[in-house]
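yo, Chordin is done. seq:
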Amino acid sequence: MLDRRALRAALCVLGCAWLHAGAASRLKSPALPIQSEREPLPSKGLSGCSFGGRFYSLEDTWHPDLGEPFGVMHCVQCQCEPQKSRRGKVFGKVNCKNIKQDCPDLGCEDPVLLPGHCCKTCPERLDDKKQTDSVLDSFDYFLEKDKEKVDDLHKSYNDRSYLSSEEVGSEESRTDFVAVLTGVTDSWLPTSSGVARARFSLTKTSLAFAITYKRMDRPSKITFLDSAGTAAFEYRVPKGQSHMICGMWKNLAKPLMRQLQAEQIHISMSTSVSRREEVEGKIIKHRALFAETFSSTLTSENEHSGMGGIAMLTLSDTENNLHFILVLQGLIKHKETEPHVVPIRVQLVYRQHILREIRANVTSHDPDFAEVLTDLNSRELFWLSRGQLEIAVATEGRDPRQISGFITSRKSCDTIQSVMSSGDALTPGKTGGVGSAVFHLHDNGTLEYQVQVAGLTSDFVGLTIELKPRRRNKRSVLYDLTPEYNKATGRAQGSWSRLEARHIHMLLQNELFINVATAHNQDGELRGQIKALLYNGLEAPRHVLPVTLAGQFVTPPVRTGASGHAWVSVDRQCHLNYQIIVAGLSKSDDITVNAHLHGLAEIGELDDSSATHKRLLTGFYGSQAQGVLKDISVELLRHLDQGTAFIQVSTKMNPRGEIRGQVHVPNSCEFGTRGEEEEDGDDFLAKDAEELKKDPQTCFFENQHHAHGSRWTPNYDRCFSCSCQKRTVICDPVICPVLTCSRTVQPQDKCCPVCDDRKELKDVKTPEKVEEHLEGCYFEGDQKMHAPGTTWHPFVPPFGYIKCAVCTCKGSSGEVHCEKVTCPVLTCAHPVRRNPSDCCKECPEEEKTSAALEHSDMMQADGPRHCKFGKNFYQNSDNWHPWVPLVGEMKCINCWCDHGVTKCQRKQCPVLTCTNLTRREGTCCPECADSKEEADLMLKSPDKRKTWRH
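structure:
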């Protein structure tokens, strides 16, 4: 459903668009066919809705009547929904939606459309069940989120690329967990003010984890504790500046896996010994994780409070409703006696202004809380996309306690990527080309992208990020990357700084696609679904571009619909790590989906007669292959260093290579594997204090023992860094890096300044500075917030700024009112426009012939020559079919422009005397159902299969 503002904007297209033309008052047809009325309700004590000049009671439903010549919109259903104000007063709100998409699929060959109905029915069963509306009004949305599995694309269009990862049986199964880590308050150990959020993904025997933390130094060690409290696994955190920790726990024993599934595993995280802080929490499974697209870590301003929490949030698929679940720790005081009820207050805040507030009760033994914030307006969605909304949770009573945090897009160590193939194009093909894309989503809503394309069969035309098309030839383009594409290099690099909250949600739900169009394939030669690649312990996918794999790179070239990309790296032990992703292989390649993927992947394919350069990699699981090669020959390592190695993926259909790509991995492994002896201090696990004393290579400094190879910051000066090298302590001054951000802060416990958390991100195009005002107006054209009372020229893509109109922000209501600029009356016979961007014409010094009509001319209020209808302009005598929001084009109604006046008329239908009337697809008038002759004519009609929108 649409909220009131979106409804008003959508339904005003025919008569109340943002420009109120002076000619609108001269329209003979209704200027506003469908509009939510603002007239007062019939009685102050009666709650309901006023719509279209009528009053409706709460819960009433109806089909809106647009009046002549449009009539009743049977495919649009409106409802008067009861709402509660903050003071508890009940009022009605009108919501309308198109119900044609809910029509059932019919098995008969010739369904008919009965007069007064929206959906077709089979002639032999006209009493089919009525349409029902599915309204998600509870948090069961997280459990029952309905993925669209059937689309109405033309049969020649490809729909395999829209399968979600949950629907592909060959993909690895995974289980997601989460943990909230807070300071320990009931222990003799030093505590912490920090709060951390950890997310885990279990696949087979490996547990990947992504941890973010606040209000604490970067941890040095992460410990997993089993049900008995014993350390089951320790992870040494590598040094870095990021507040994200990515790691893997490989080869979990089965007893530990059972404990993990039973929520008996705890996790603790501690900082260095010199300033020890520790946070801990229990790892739990949660139903909300799979649908989460936004998140927040909640902290307390109080020191060492032991309070914290997380919020998991997601948007509804079709409505602007924000669902969230709170997992709280330490906020509710837990008593040993019976559970008691605790009142809490949840607020949505923007710059210390409360936008929404919810009051509820939770129990001390189960403090989790779920709720829905309904009908977010455009300003709230805008702030949500920019990471500027804050969620605050507080207890009420004698001892109020509060935690809060900013809402940002979901944090993850996964790689957002896409493989574009011709097999997944809207019209599938076998070109042998490849496209590869990697994305990075920042907290401020900026999407950074890097794209590389190779092997196109014709000239490049366009590169776009798109939604799934609803039907043939109706591609839904969200963002055009074409201007950033370099044809010489086949690459595009840049950022999209105006990502909306809805787009962020779709991106993280794997619902966006990237498309490459060419001269011979205007709809797209290559296409791929943008997906999150699960973190597997390798850092390469998070920092470097993959190697592209294509049939065009095979010798001789292979015309295949498949393509792929691969990340390859060589670690310090000279082990080769690889991860390969393949897309576009069709089921016709073999009987099963996996058959075409357990072909061999070969590296170093230089000479078929030489087997010394070949190494067999692990077989594929689903569309991926990953693994580690440890015993690599010196010659093969040299080929990798020189860029003369290859990755090749083979199938049963093409055993000599389906796709391949050239690999260049610089390394210094001329002497083969170095082994484990050159272990760096970052990988050194902290030893027990007693063991350190016994180690002859240990350093003693500032009353502490330090292991050989370890590094630390001395207490006497934060601007020095010390290391232990075989009983010798070496301290060097810290050289601060040059910062490129606009705002920096100086942490008290750090030597070097750091970029502010709210900084503009490095290497990302800085979004236009938005002057945001809480009580202002959000304008869709320029996607900016405007202060109350300010005026501006509207920005209308693709024309730019329209100087013939002036928009005003109407105070705290948040409404934008736009008017046409009134031009002065001119006395000359041939006025001219001095500049194309000027609104009003002027009298020239010399009479000149007026230029050809431009878009700005259409907005000139100096004559009734043109008509404005909805968002379109028409010249005199133009004819068109009107377009009605939620319904579409009204092909049975003709409109024309008569000297500045829009006139519309419905097609006249003959009077029928029969009682059994039907309306067949593609016709405007009803007909007698018993007329076999007319039915035969309809079957022969070439337009029978055209979509009928009303």
